[in-house]
Prior knowledge:
Radius of gyration: 27 Å
CATH superfamily of the largest domain: YVTN repeat-like/Quinoprotein amine dehydrogenase
Structural class: mainly beta
Number of strands: 42
Distance between the termini: 84 Å
Shape: elongated
Strand order of the largest sheet: 1-2-3-4
Strand content: 35-45%
Mean pLDDT: 80
Number of helices: 1
Number of domains: 3
Amino acid sequence: MAAGSRLPDRGPRSRSGIRPAGRVWPVCRRRTSRASRSIPRGRGSPRCHAPAYHVAYSPDGAWIASASRDGVVRVWDASSGSPAAMLRDHHGKILWVEFDPTSTQIASAGVDGAVTVSDRATGARVATFERAHREAKMVRFSPDTHELIAASVDGIAHVWTVHDSYRRFGSPPRGKGCGTDVVPREDGRFLAVSCETGAQIWDTASDKLLAELPAPQPLPSIPDPYPAVTALGDRAAVALGNTVAVFALPGGARIRTIEHPALVRALAFAPAGHDLVTASADGTLFVVRDGREPVALPSPAGAVTAVAFTSDGHAIAASAADHRIRSYDLERGQVAFELDDSQQIADVRALRISPDGRRLIALAMDKSTVVPVLWDLAGRRRLATLSRGKDIVLAARFVDNHRVVTASRDGAARLWDATTGELERAFLGNSVVLFDAAVNSDATILATAAGDGAVRFWDIASGRLLWVLHAHHSFVNGVHFAGSDVISRGYDGDIARWSLPLIPPPDLAELVSCLPLQLDEKTGALVDDRPCGSRSVKDR
Length: 540
């Protein structure tokens, strides 16, 4: 090169004058050049009005995360530039983002003073650490991932021990649409997760996947998109159009097919053994036993929309044709009695039976409402509607023979007297929809599954919110207790097991009686400053 000649200025130089090699990702414009590659501005990517204050590569080089002014951490696949996750864990701009050494967790710090750790794969929040006095400027993991240090503008460095927020097991997400508003069966030990890509059967006691089965068809219009599983977890039944396929567990080998003349609408196994009841849109109702042909039970023409079993082996079926609920004596193959529900025009989509078999909850659903109706089976009479006005109740279950818990779209869980239908207590959170609610075995703690991905725990005696567990990146569609553990199910098809300190200390009742009635989770402000003391149901 001739003396005095200059290279054209085509990009930034280091202090040594050598141009650095690398890729430029202009995130706020769509136009790219041969020397650069832009992150797509589709769902999950930042817009020009949300600039990034900090970016970080994962140690394995597979992911990129950015901290944005709009309070969202965005994660991309580094090889393709496609958005992978959006983490909404802050209330204000985020100043720093950091991967842990394993590239599985992301820590972020922002002007709200909070430092959060989230799971990169699921998007669920793992932990939120105590607020700094002022905004947190930077956060770092220790090399062994056991500690996290954050620098605050007040000159204080905060150090925390990093833990997994009590999570003991978690399955990866399977995709969107793995759930419905009203679940036909309560979550239990053997948990069916059903998505458009297929169904999975899990044994949540051992965290084992028992089988991968075909997805119920047709989705999403089928009213019962969940496989039914026996109490022992050795069989599963799936509705596939006009047929029901029965599979052996574990493994998933098909062992039987039951043909129906119309679309299968509902199915249920008996509380013990392999007896199975299946129902279709034309009113056909079969009882299926091992080694025998299906036996048709008497039923009027028109769809049977829900089926269940009582503890003594009777089958319960709800008919949309005449809005009656029938109890069947399966040994005789005939109707034992009928409940007239003709004043309820909505179709029953789910049935819940009390442990002693004396009471029934029928969840009736149409395009705009979901109403749980409590029935006295022994007295053959309707007791009450378990809702307040226009509440849309998405879940109802018996806590025991004496109480029922419901979860509503208005964000409230409620406890009801199962013998009278009277409201005992309401648990008022924020306005986030609740999809499920469950009570632990000693009836001291209530857990609610919410549309913001959180499971909230409440003290039943006082009605106070105890703590919030950020369990899933999507809606929490189901929750149940398994001894001292909690099992949660997300709308993306992921499930998780949490080991939590659920046994309250002796003075808990006295402690929570003086806590605020409600806590604004966004601001931390108390919204009830009334003096301690008992309050009536109306106050709650």
